[in-house]
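Quick log. Single chain, no ligands specified.
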Amino acid sequence: INIPAIRVNENTSIYFDGKEIPKKEETRLWKFYKPKGSLTSNYDPKGRDLIFDFLPKEMPRVITIGRLDYNTEGLILLTNDGEFARKLEMPSSGFVRKYRVRVHGKIEKKKLEYLSNGIVINSIKYKPINVVFERQNKSNAWISMKLKEGKNREIRNIMEFFGWEVSRLIRLEFGRFKLASLKEKNLIELKYSSFSDLL
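-> predicted structure:
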């Protein structure tokens, strides 16, 4: 019986039509401070800034792990490995996202307490969110929020529901990865002996 399957490993050279198929690139990972007023997509018909415009020319082709909307700034992870990106994005990874949020107006702490049990807004159910009130200034306030889901515009939708307009939104953490002292538009490659340990 002829069996078409052939066992190969990472050292095997495979050719198709006389040309060697490139071996999979080694997984690489970077953290980047996304500036406000930029997109995490590869193209914008309106010609707005893309985060890829700020990356060094010698960077390999990379994709973002998750997204941040146009007016959100802070930590975004970049990788050259699509499969690795999908695994980190999945809810099963259990990665917590931490944000600092500045809103216009006076904070009513009682409203923030509702979020510890989750909340439903316009038929969308948001899971429990850990919220810490930081400080109240004359016209605005700062709070920090930790959430696992990160649904589209989740923080902005919740704040608007409470009657507070978000004037600044910064992602500080994505799982074990932290913005730390990284400055706007700066990029750092993260080195690990085994990326599978991050999953």
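The longest helix spans residues 154-162.
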